[in-house]
Amino acid sequence: MGETVRACLRSVGLLHEDSVIEVEHPVRIRYGYPIYDHAYAQATGTIHEFLRRHGLAPAGRFGRWAYLSLEDSLLDGMRAAAECQTVPASALTG
Ligand SMILES: Cc1cc2nc3c(=O)[nH]c(=O)nc-3n(C[C@H](O)[C@H](O)[C@H](O)COP(=O)(O)OP(=O)(O)OC[C@H]3O[C@@H](n4cnc5c(N)ncnc54)[C@H](O)[C@@H]3O)c2cc1C
Predict the structure, then answer these.
(1) Which sequence spans correspond to the domains of the chain?
(2) Ligand 1: does its nearest atom lie under 6 Å from the Cβ of 73?
(3) Is residue 93 very low, low, confident or very high in pLDDT (cuts 50, 70, 90)?
(4) Measured from the CA of 33, which atom of ligand 1 is nearest?
(5) Whole-number Å distance between alpha carbons of 83 and 75
(6) DSSP letter for each residue of 22-78
(7) Measured at the alpha carbon of residue 57, what is the angle toward residues 71 and 82, in degrees to the nearest 5?
(8) Quick one: pLDDT band at residue 92, thresholds 50, 70, 90?
(9) Are 9 and 15 in contact (CB under 8 A)?
(10) Taking every pair of C-alpha atoms in the chain, what is the biggest distance, in angstroms?
(11) Which atom of ligand 1 is nearest to the CA of 62?
(12) Lowest mean pLDDT among 22-26, 55-59, 86-90
């Protein structure tokens, strides 16, 4: 898998002959595609409400379990950071 990724990065000019790769950490994701089935709204609603009650702001494709692209995930991270600024300190410690 690593060689395939390196070849792709070379082909788009992000990796050069003199590039030094310091860390490689391939992760195989067992569940990568959120499926919006009939149980989706209730299941994710229950989890997200629990997280918010404990002062956690889920973000990104795997935090919100929503079909987000990379750019959606970046924006969602910014939204979550803004949301965290409004969470009362008691929710973070309780
Ligand atoms: C097969 C597949 C193909 C895709 N193709 C595209 C595409 O072509 N174009 C596109 O725009 N999007 C694509 N996406 C979507 C894109 O990859 C995701 O939307 C985006 O990467 C999600 O970002 P994220 O931050 O939610 O999660 P991730 O990118 O998974 O980042 C979460 C990070 O948090 C780390 N982490 C998790 N738990 C902890 C913890 N407890 N402590 C510390 N670190 C932790 C993980 O190791 C990971 O590095 C694809 C997704 C998949 C699965």
Answers:
(1) 2-93
(2) yes
(3) low
(4) 53
(5) 12
(6) --------S--S----TTHHHHHHHHHHHHHHTT----HHHHHT----HHHHHHHHH
(7) 65
(8) low
(9) yes
(10) 52
(11) 26
(12) 86-90
Tokens of 86: 């409004």
The answer to whether the CB of 61 falls within 8 A of the CB of 34 is: yes
Cβ neighbors of 63 (< 8 A, separation 6 or more) are 76, 80
Q: Give the HSE-up count for residue 55: Cα atoms under 13 Å, Cβ half-sphere.
A: 10
What local confidence, expressed as pLDDT, does residue 87 receive?
Answer: 66
Whether 62 lines ligand 1, by a CB cut-off of 6 Å, is yes
The response to whether residue 15 sits with its C-beta less than 6 Å from ligand 1 reads: no
pLDDT for residue 94 = 45
Radius of gyration of the chain (CA): 18
Q: Which residue has the tokens 């929503």?
A: 66
* Rounded average pLDDT over 38-52: 95
